[in-house]
Amino acid sequence: MPPSHPAAARQSAKPDAATAAIERPNVVGANAPGFGSDVVADTLRALQIPYIAVTPGASYRGLHDSIVNYLGNTMPQMLLCVHEEAAVAIAHGWAKVTGRAIAAAVHSNVGLQHATMAMFNAWCDRMPVVVLGATGPVDAMKRRPWIDWIHTARDQGALVRGYTKWDDQPASPGAAREAILRGTWLANTAPQGPVYINLDAEMQEAKLTEPLPPLDAARYTPAVTTAASADLVQQAAALLKSAKQPVILSGRMSRSERAWNARVALAEALDARVITDLKIGASFPTDHPLYVGAAHALTPDSADALRAADIVLSLDWVDLAGALKLAPPSPGAKIIQVSLDYRIHNGWSMDYQGLPAIDLFVSADPDAVVPDLVQVLDGGRLRVAPPPRAAASGSEPPGFTNEHIARVLEKVVGERPVTLTHLPISWEDRWWTFRHPLDFLGSDGGGGVGGGPGISVGAALALKNSGRLPIAVCGDGDFLMGVTAVWTAAHYKIPLLFVIANNRSFYNDELHQERVARMRDRPVENKWIGQRMADPEIDIAAMGRAQGALGIGPIKNAADLAPALEKAIAAVDAGGVAVIDVRVEPGYTATMTAAMTRAKS
Ligand SMILES: Cc1ncc(C[n+]2csc(CCOP(=O)(O)OP(=O)(O)O)c2C)c(N)n1
Ligand SMILES: [Mg+2]
């Protein structure tokens, strides 16, 4: 399929050989499609979708049979998941690395209900996922008593329509083929996002009355131009040339190394200061002299840079209006927005954020615009060679916190390439240096806690054989809500290291209770009630072991962390999954606390 997103060009749709050897069916006999669901399976293969993450259910038993017994469980291969939320999160994580959609299959209305939060996360993260669902027979005469009735809904897609790009319920095999072609094309086209296709059980299981014509999937999934017109690029370049203190807000971008290099060239040509966002994947080298800081909301340095700016170039910043509200640039400053995001804003979800005042709007994919800008600007004011990787600096922080995890982890991994597939809420960009677009993949997107484990498993699958060590640093709340994704990683031999920042609490909300107590002049010391997961403390290492991972911990001080990490990394290098329970103290950094309380005030 032609790519519609720069990252797509890099993806090999080839499944991993070790994973491919798992769950081989016996005697795969059928060589001609005989049923409606065979057509669906054929279409997934024609689109070269390598995996379908599944949590099974009778509503799609026809499709299940087609993938196993007709396709031989190859292209796509099933990834069995213990929860639908994990199935969709795994597909989301795959997309975060590759820029392309794989499929997930969920059972009727109930499976879709389990999947919804993960679909919302993928939507807010603008990541493509093709979610296939199913319904009991639409024709009431064909329904089995009770079960087919409770698992049939008039408009199942309504459950997810507010946070998918498109949904459909095709009524024939030909229509199902078209729906999967259209859905996959839409999901992969910028701005990307999940789609939902609901397959009628009756349609799946019915015998084909006549064969469908041959399919050339590429002709139904054309490349979409996402570049800006030359005129708009000229206008943007002219504005930028006039700037004395330009700032780049480096937002949603692909994992392409070429696009990364172009971004660096643009910043250098403009001598522009660059702000990134930990909500999304790495987009600029954090050891570059022009780098200011990353934001959950906005760090103090980033806010200062923004206030001093005379031109702000937003490269699809997630919340441009919010940033300009928190740190208004000087009067008369010009705002340039490069984004296609407006194309999918809808009436249900407000994840589109506030409406920013803009002086020049460039309706295009920033990854396509930046190289054009660099060319038009033709060199620039500054040429800086990136300095060597900064050594961990400053004195040892007190206690045992997420910062210790970062410091020890950085020492243990040394110079080997690492991908941080997920980070806990309380994490600061200065703790880790990003030098490559795959060094960090960003957050869950929608603030749906529990996404971290599944996203990390999908990302780790996409990173298999890349030479990169995937590391998921998850809060204990996040890990526990999505914990069964560990089994899928262990079962399909997906190497991955989980480091759990276990403060035995939904600590984020302790901070909120503290704030409310202060506002109301009530006892702050009760903030832990209804938040702490203690008495008994949950044995997180055992939850890893229970699912086939190496479980280590609890690790209660920084000195024990390095040997634990070394042992865990050896297990991951040998192809396994490891989970380390690190018992950090409850508490957030001052910057994080300030950002949260500011956002709430
Ligand atoms: C599905 C869901 N439930 C609840 C919340 C509210 N919430 C936001 S952060 C948070 C705490 C997460 O705990 P953990 O992952 O352990 O991180 P910590 O704050 O302790 O560092 C909660 C419960 C949410 N965002 N999503
Ligand atoms: Mg916690």
Please, could you describe this protein's structure?
The protein has 601 residues and is of the alpha/beta class. The chain has 22 helices and 17 strands. The chain has helices at 17-20, 36-46, 61-70, 84-98, 108-124, 147-150, 173-188, 201-205, 217-220, 230-241, 257-270, 300-308, 320-326, 366-377, 402-413, 451-463, 476-481, 485-491, 507-520, 540-545, 558-573, 590-600; strands spanning 51-54, 77-80, 103-105, 129-135, 167-168, 194-200, 246-250, 273-277, 291-295, 311-315, 334-338, 360-362, 418-422, 469-475, 496-501, 550-555, 577-582. It has a six-stranded parallel sheet. Strand 13 (418-422), helix 16 (451-463) and strand 14 form a beta-alpha-beta unit. Helix 2 runs parallel beside helix 7 (173-188) and helix 4 (84-98) runs parallel beside helix 5. The longest helix has 17 residues, at 108-124. It starts with 16 loop residues before the first helix and ends with a helix. The protein binds thiamine diphosphate (TPP) and magnesium ion (MG). The site of magnesium ion (MG) has 7 residues, from helix 17.
Topology, element by element:
Blueprint: H1 17-20, H2 36-46, E1 51-54, H3 61-70, E2 77-80, H4 84-98, E3 103-105, H5 108-124, E4 129-135, H6 147-150, E5 167-168, H7 173-188, E6 194-200, H8 201-205, H9 217-220, H10 230-241, E7 246-250, H11 257-270, E8 273-277, E9 291-295, H12 300-308, E10 311-315, H13 320-326, E11 334-338, E12 360-362, H14 366-377, H15 402-413, E13 418-422, H16 451-463, E14 469-475, H17 476-481, H18 485-491, E15 496-501, H19 507-520, H20 540-545, E16 550-555, H21 558-573, E17 577-582, H22 590-600
Parallel strand pairs: 1-2, 1-3, 3-4, 4-6, 5-6, 7-8, 7-10, 8-9, 10-11, 11-12, 13-14, 14-15, 15-17, 16-17
Helix pairs in contact: 2-3, 2-7, 4-5, 4-16, 10-14, 11-14, 15-21, 16-18
The chain binds thiamine diphosphate (TPP) and magnesium ion (MG).
